[in-house]
Predict the structure.
Amino acid sequence: MSKSYVEQYLHAYHVLPTGPLPTLFDFPHQYAPNEWTQTAAEQIQKLIANTFAHEFNTLGKMFGVLVVDTPFGIRFLAGFSGKIDESTQFPGFVPPIYDTLNTDAFFKQGEHELNDLTHRINELTHGEPLSTILKEKSQYELEAQAQIAELKRSIKGKKEQRDSIRRAPNLPADTESQLANESKQEQLILKKLKKEIQTRLEEISAKISLIQDEITDLKTERTNQSIALQHQLFKAYNLLNFNGESSTVLDVFTAFNGDIPPSGTGECALPKLLHFAALNQLKPICFAEFWWGLSPVGEIRKHGHFYPACRAKCEPILGFMLQGISVAKNPVLSIINTSPLRILYEDDFLVIIDKPSGLLSVPGRSDLDSAEDRLALREGTGAYIKAIHRLDMGTSGILMFAKSPEILAAMQTQFAKNRVTKTYEAILDGIPKELEGVITLPLRLNLAHRPHQMVCFEHGKKTHTEFNVLEFKDKRTRIEFYPKTGRTHQLRMHAAHPLGLNCAILGDELYGVAKERLYLHAKELNFTHPVELKKMTINSKANF
């Protein structure tokens, strides 16, 4: 008896996990994979080599598993993000929400029209007509410059002859008049030549402008068509949730933040898995996503490691798709550190605290507590208190605040001019190859996967981190970092990236594996007091 359509995508466990099933669906943007998802992932990983001809050691892919309750018992679904080798459908892996590779559908036809426009633009940009005219203009400009230079040399020589004649005694008046007329005629000839050259250059430039204007018009047409095609595509991604409601990706993003969805929204593994489950009345229990193969250039993806769902593309649509399911709360809410702030130093101008791990430095878009909020509450209504620099929520240690705008500006200038030195202590999840050294990998925001950063040698901002290993213990490394620049996630990226130390900081949920905390501590700060102008050193011992 042949399997039904749905059964073709349902995987039975070869070995059934012994642990209890979760009662709440994982919070998708920060979770720890449980026994059910780990077992499902291991089973799928063995299946990958027999399903795909793709060379994953050349470029990897994000895969996902979704454990579901079905009429046949507990099963799991498998899926992957985007496409693999120009295909979106493989046996045993859920189909896309909308198949962008369907040659009969609007998207492929729209892509074909965009490709035609691109081909025409390239032909005009790099083709023979424009190339020939540009060469003609360049050659003519060289010839014209030579003509003008030659004429000017001739005029200069004749002027020297006239000046010699003028120095003769008792020069007749008619001779002087003749010499002046010769000079005037030469200038008229030069002016005429320049005008002829200018006219010819304008004629050539007009031909160039006609082609360039056509290129500009085609680029504008391509941009408008691309935007329209994206809008049409985001309307074609019709999402289902577990309340039986449907909405398009475009409508979900409009309601969420009014923005246009990023390219590729709706193609990630988890949305595909949830959509298939909702479409076929399967109840989701838990999920996990894992990376398989080589990491993309500049990013940090470890082969076989589990990762949370992205926020830039998935946060709005998952918020809609998971309606009707009991979802666990954001784990960040449970790790907010409520212990009193420890003051390391305070005077009329500055207050320096020992920020605990699990507390924001400054207020964010959420309603989460922050060190700045607490200090403002302590200072009272109307008091000025602003963070001079920042520490990540998971990072503990020295954090400095200003009590006036003037002090804030003065201290930020010190930071900007590298007059403040900082020392961090961390535990690395692994053993780096070097005991000391410098890392200068340039960083920028990964727009497709906020708030992650990525290494980018073309557009990244310059960075500089010095490091010194303190000790090794239990396959982990205690290390000191001395950052000379202060980019977002600089130490975390420099530790985790293969071109850096290739060892993530222990507990780094973004670039490594989440633990009870991020093992990174700001232990020393050296600066000049903005008013008293004395050198100061503030210390804080790491509690790990």
The chain has three domains: 6-98+238-331, 119-233, 335-539. The first helix runs from residue 35 to 51. The two ends are 60 Å apart (CA to CA).
